Every structure is written in C-alpha cells, then in structure tokens.
C-alpha cells in the first residue's frame, strides 16, 4: 500500500536535468504523464541568466510545475543574482550543478570539478540561500578522478549542510575529468548506490535523492526502500525517463498513491496536442516538440513506423498536428492487426 502523498518529500521522484533534452517542450510533455514528478531545466550558466535572453533561456509555462532550474557557476555573487532572477521567474527550486564532467564546465570552473572545492560550494549555497526563499539544492557526484568517494562526498555534504542546503541529489558514480568523455562518464565509472545510502545514514535529517543508472520505477522503488530503518528521500531518473517516457505514467500511482493524469500514451498525446498547437501558431517547428516523444510507444506494435514517420515527415517545414496524428494512427493500426 502506498502512503498518503502529503507525507512525501518534494524530491521523491524527479526527471534529471539533461542538456539538449529537458527543454520546455520536453517538460510540458512529461507533465502530461505525471502530475507529481519534479522536473528540471537543462543546466543554465549564471552568465546566460544574467546577460542572455532570459525569456528564451529560462522562460517556461506555469503548467510545467513543479519545475526547478539548474544553475552552473562558481561565483557566489553571480549565483545569488541568478537564483534571485530564477525565483522571480517562478521556479520552485534552484539547483547547483556539481556533477557535470564536460570540458566546457571544467574550463568555467563549475560542474563536477567543484567536488574538489567543497568550501567554495558551501559559499555558493549560502549566497543563494540568502538571496531566495525557495529551496536551494545541490546535484553532485560521489567524487572526481582519484578522490576517495568516502572523504569527497562527506566533505561536500558537511559544507553544504552548514550552508543550509535543502537537499542533496547524488549521482552515484565518480566523474573522471581526465581520460573519459562526458558520454563515457555516464556509463563507465561503476555505480555505488551504497555510498549514497551511507551519506543518508550519516545525515538522516538531510533530504538525499539518488541518481545514476536507474532504468525503471522498480529499480527506483528498490533504492527508496529503507535500509537499517533509514530511507532515501527520492530517486531521479534521467535517460531512462527520456528514452521510455511511458514509464512516467507509473510515477503518480506507484510512488504517490494518486491516479496518473492520463490513462495511456494515446491519451498523453491528446493532452499534449493543445500545447503543440500553440507553439506551432507561434512559428515553432513540429520536430521541436515531437523529438521528445519518439520513445513513447517503445515495445508496442507500431513503435518503429511511428518513430520513422515523426523522424522524417515530422521534420519537414509543413509538418503539423496532422503529421503527429498520422504517426499515432500507425500505432493504432499495428495494434489492431496484432489483436486480430
């Protein structure tokens, strides 16, 4: 039996911030599948927030809520200013990226390389906490390069706790800043879920969520089960939720004890159509929205022709809602044939 949803942590289930993937169209689509999942923006640098086209970069539809912004940076003053802007835009949480291993973030002295500077991370969190009233969280790795994961994560946790961090989201892998590409860093360093459970056991009053390699809700629920009487507060799925978005239909009933917003993937598309229509009216191309939906029917008859139609016809300038409906009809036709 699922406990009453009011007792759940805000971080009980979330979809990870993913560059080039979790844009506003993706988040609007994911919201049709789950009313309770916490959704994150792609990482946005403080420089972009402070000096770039803000509405284009961090604007979002209120229907996406609950939605959080992830910031990249290492200057406490800039992070505080960017966090204040994010709060004014209506974000319900500000998250600091201490986990991205790309060359670009290393050059900018943020992301995973900040694991080596826990004191600075604490200063950044303190500055953001002083600037906003919404929760300030940190997403990190268990260490980088030759760091001892026990010492590295404990040091970071101590500093951000002292600064008043509201939650810690831990990708249960090291990041290797030398020798591995960002893509390789998502798969090659071994997972150590036990390390995340140990940091929670040592800090029982600090909300801690686990991330990294979680392939489905069953795996996530297994990690949320108490160990020695202490349970993690949340699970964050990334690529699995993006590649197999239909799994999000199970989030509300399985993790929050509530009905899903829609009954099935077909109903999810119907619910998403008004959003698509509005964006098309604004001059947006269909593919900007449907690229996030390619995996929706994975494992069902008709999934391949559906993907092919959206990947080919859906990218043409004249593509519209009729194109999406044609793709869905291919699934319906295959399903009917399979049932005959």
Automatic annotation (TrEMBL):
The record marks 97, 183, 186, 304, 307 as: Interacts with tRNA. FMN binds at residues 17-19, 70, 139, 171, 211-213, 238-239. Its cofactor is FMN. Residues 15-326 form the DUS-like FMN-binding domain. Gene3D superfamilies: 1.20.120.1460, Aldolase class I. GO terms for molecular function: flavin adenine dinucleotide binding; FMN binding; tRNA binding; tRNA-dihydrouridine20 synthase activity; tRNA-dihydrouridine20a synthase activity. The active site is at residue 100. Its EC number is 1.3.1.91. It catalyses: 5,6-dihydrouridine(20a) in tRNA + NAD(+) = uridine(20a) in tRNA + NADH + H(+); 5,6-dihydrouridine(20a) in tRNA + NADP(+) = uridine(20a) in tRNA + NADPH + H(+); 5,6-dihydrouridine(20) in tRNA + NADP(+) = uridine(20) in tRNA + NADPH + H(+); 5,6-dihydrouridine(20) in tRNA + NAD(+) = uridine(20) in tRNA + NADH + H(+). Transmembrane segments: none annotated. It is an enzyme of class 1 (oxidoreductase). InterPro entries: Aldolase_TIM, DUS-like_FMN-bd, DUS_fam, DusA, tRNA_hU_synthase_CS. Keywords: Flavoprotein, FMN, NADP, Nucleotide-binding, Oxidoreductase, RNA-binding, tRNA processing, tRNA-binding. Belongs to the dus family. Belongs to the Dus family. DusA subfamily. NCBIfam families: PRK11815.1. Catalyzes the synthesis of 5,6-dihydrouridine (D), a modified base found in the D-loop of most tRNAs, via the reduction of the C5-C6 double bond in target uridines. Specifically modifies U20 and U20a in tRNAs. This is tRNA-dihydrouridine(20/20a) synthase.
């Amino acid at each position: 039996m699922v406990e009453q949803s009011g007792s759940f942590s805000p971080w009980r289930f979330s979809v990870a911030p993913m560059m080039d993937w979790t844009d506003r169209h993706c988040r609007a689509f994911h919201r049709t599948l789950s009313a309770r999942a916490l959704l994150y923006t792609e990482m946005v640098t403080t420089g972009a927030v402070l000096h770039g086209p803000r509405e284009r970069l961090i604007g979002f539809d209120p229907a996406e809520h609950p939605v959080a912004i992830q910031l990249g940076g290492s200057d406490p003053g800039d992070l505080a200013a960017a966090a204040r802007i994010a709060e004014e835009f209506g974000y319900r949480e500000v998250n600091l990226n201490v986990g991205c291993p790309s060359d670009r973030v290393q050059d900018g002295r943020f992301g995973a390389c900040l694991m080596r500077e826990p004191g600075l991370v604490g200063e950044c969190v303190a500055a953001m906490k002083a600037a906003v009233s919404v929760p300030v969280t940190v997403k990190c790795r268990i260490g980088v390069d030759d760091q001892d994961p026990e010492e590295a994560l404990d040091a970071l946790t101590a500093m951000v706790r002292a600064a008043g961090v509201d939650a810690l989201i831990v990708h249960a892998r090291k990041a290797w800043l030398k020798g591995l590409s960002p893509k390789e860093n998502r798969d090659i360093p071994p997972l150590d879920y036990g390390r995340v459970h140990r940091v929670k056991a040592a800090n029982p009053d600090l909300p801690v969520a686990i991330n990294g390699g979680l392939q489905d809700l069953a795996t996530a629920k297994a990690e949320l089960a108490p160990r020695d009487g202490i349970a993690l507060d949340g699970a964050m799925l990334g690529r699995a939720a993006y590649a197999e978005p239909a799994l999000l239909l199970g989030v509300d009933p399985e993790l929050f004890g509530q009905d899903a917003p829609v009954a099935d993937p077909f109903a999810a598309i119907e619910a998403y159509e008004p959003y698509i229509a509005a964006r098309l009216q604004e001059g947006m191309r269909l593919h900007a929205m449907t690229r996030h939906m390619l995996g929706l029917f994975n494992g069902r008859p008709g999934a391949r022709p559906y993907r092919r139609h959206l990947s080919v016809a859906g990218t043409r300038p004249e593509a519209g809602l009729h194109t999406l409906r044609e793709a869905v009809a291919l699934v319906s036709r295959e399903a009917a044939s399979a049932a005959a």
